């Protein structure tokens, strides 16, 4: 009988342990989808990994390799020189730039944006009589061929047009065009060029050059004159060689690390670090980017830029970047799940520290070439652009770019939407000098024309098209310690994209199923125990 009692007790103990084990495994099975959602194995798509500050690079002040000129620089128009476009750009009227400038001028009793420095990291900026406040920043392509200070040669034409949108100040009363912050100072850094290519016949510049200049090298065209070089794509009413595009794509983008061109993520990271260390600017405009297929990983160059923008943002600099242009090599993010983009654009990917700018067209719609993504912050006009003629010696304007040497097309791209936002940041800085970088960005976002989407934000225009007048006048609850109201979604809207995660439903169903299974097993075990009790009682008797 003692053996029977021991056997019954052992069986009950084993049954209880089995039940507890099954219950534990059921809870683990419920948690697995959550672990899988958070694990690094899921990759880095919409959200980049945490910042690795060990990737922060010092500023060498020079190119990362030696480049040589491969195409002729942009030249003055063969259709007519120093053209004066009397009409105002539609984007200037759409954003009420004139009214915004009057507000700043009245509040500061001075110039519009005076005292604010905007760094333009681009293809360089050519001196122009309507860009009076222009300073040398740095040279990361090659020694200027014309003896100009570092950063003040623009062979491509792109950077000059970007700078004009920010701070051009025409002295001709017949000209309707004007920069957003005409009294701000432009600090130019030439960081890339599509008219230069790596020079494989010579060695990399020596790292011993610590003076901040470029290495001694010759950028003289191969046969001694610009006219012997392949054309860069047209004359002075254009911006140089635009990207080859398809309908609905942009010709205004400048891609970093593009084969056969000058410009890498490494030198971009160095420039950003150098600007922060020297306090060389209050705002940085980057109408350059690197676009690649999303793989769930992050490259060394991207980590370097991520560390640099975080470093500069912590130093109080407003960082503005173009959201990117859809091209044959940079596919549009039109996949169903917005949280798993197929295209990653840097620097916009680092949205915690970068205000990225999408583009709208002259009809107020999202420009078809503007790359979508969870990192888009705001939007601004990016089509039918008018800006400074970038050709050396010009004193006119440009509204065209040329492709293949003879095909004229309007200037467009998120490259030219970004400087509208950089200019607005300069105006906000001038009117609210005690506002820090985060405060300036927050003011621009909160006063934007929010889209009809949950939380007042979507992946096309971010928090909406900027509203300069509101950004300069509106009282924000967030600036006096209150939480800003969240714009409610409008009732009349198209069904949202099918980008909702199925993880919560999977977790719920798994948990319910696991609980039911555990309950059934417990009931079965308890029933077995009860059936065995009479036999054990009889044996004890």
Question: Main traits of this protein?
Answer:
single chain; 541 residues; alpha/beta; seven-stranded parallel beta sheet; two-stranded antiparallel sheet; 10 helices; 15 strands; 30% helix; 12% strand
Largest sheet entry: 7 strands, parallel
Strand share of the residues?
5-15%
Q: Per the principal axes of the C-alpha atoms, what is the gross shape? A: globular
Distance between the first and last residues' Cα: 9 Å
Catalogue the unreliable spans.
28-41, 204-252
Tell me the structural class: alpha/beta
Strand-and-helix sequence, N→C? Answer: HEHHEEHEEHEEHEEEEEEEEHHHH
> Radius of gyration from the CA trace?
30 Å
Overall residue-averaged pLDDT value: 81
Fraction of residues in helix:
25-40%
Order of strands across the widest beta sheet? 3-4-2-6-8-10-11
Number of strands: 15
